[in-house]
Amino acid sequence: MNSSQCPVCFGARLKEWGTKNGYPIYQCTECTHVFAGEVKLASNIEDEAEFRRHITNGAADDDQAQYEQLCRGEREGGHVFLTTRMILDDLQRQQCENKEWLDIGCGSGYLLANLQRRGVKPTGIEPGGWGQIAAREKKVQVVHGLLELGTFSKKFDYVSATDVLEHQSDPYVLMKLIRHYLADTGRAYLSFPLADTFRPWLMRARWAMVIPPTHCSFFTRKSFARLAAKVGFRIEKFAQYNSTGFRGWGRLGLRLAAANKIGDALRIGDQGLVAISPLAPRCDVKLPAAADD
Length: 293
Ligand SMILES: [Zn+2]
Hints:
Layout: E1 14-20, E2 23-28, E3 34-36, H1 48-56, H2 63-71, H3 79-91, E4 100-104, H4 110-117, E5 121-126, H5 130-138, E6 141-144, E7 156-162, H6 171-181, E8 182-193, H7 198-203, E9 217-218, H8 221-231, E10 233-241, H9 256-265, E11 271-278
Parallel strand pairs: 4-5, 4-7, 5-6, 7-8
Antiparallel strand pairs: 1-2, 2-3, 3-9, 8-11, 10-11
Helix pairs in contact: 2-5, 3-4
Bound molecules: zinc ion.
Zinc ion binds next to loops.
């Protein structure tokens, strides 16, 4: 795959959205996926400072500061709070006690801690050092590193990757890993910025979610459906939500939670949460040989 090729459908007919941080931003005219060109795969980056820039947006220099910044999303109405609540609401209809759960890119560990309180057995994996701070502070299990084949020798009943797909210059690789680690009867939850919504339609490359090289992949409903089908997943649920209020919400004296509800009612939310499950494994039934009379 090169940067003039769509990482979802491999199409080469691209529309320019502009540039951001020196990276060209394209939209594929075939599957509508939006992506930043010329971004390296995180697993190919050996320089530690550059790796950190790729996974943190250079927002915080040290792990403690990054952990504290991530924790700000846990406040009522915050992004991490909302994403976690939507997943927990969906789980209410399922028997998830004692089930094994893998949370990829677990950040501040908020989802892990909430799952643990519900009797789930969660494991997190996080390439940033703040994951180990989360493990200590929230008393959860977090592996330090990037997920690869062979990181774990078991399958999980559930896999989640909240706000991880937008960091992948080749999202196909991550989706294949999710399929690899998910049991055939399992369910996965993914959240990511949604590019076929009002803000990106208006702002294009100036959309706040476009932060290459950190955020470099932006799905639409169509491009996500394309990728999910390619990897062998059925989409069970697809929810659009708002997590950043709207312009001027603070001056109106609103709380973030209330501002987000108004955003949801107006359908201006630029985030998506999906639940997916593996398509049934292909059944290769052998027909009995014709009986000899
Ligand atoms: Zn495409």
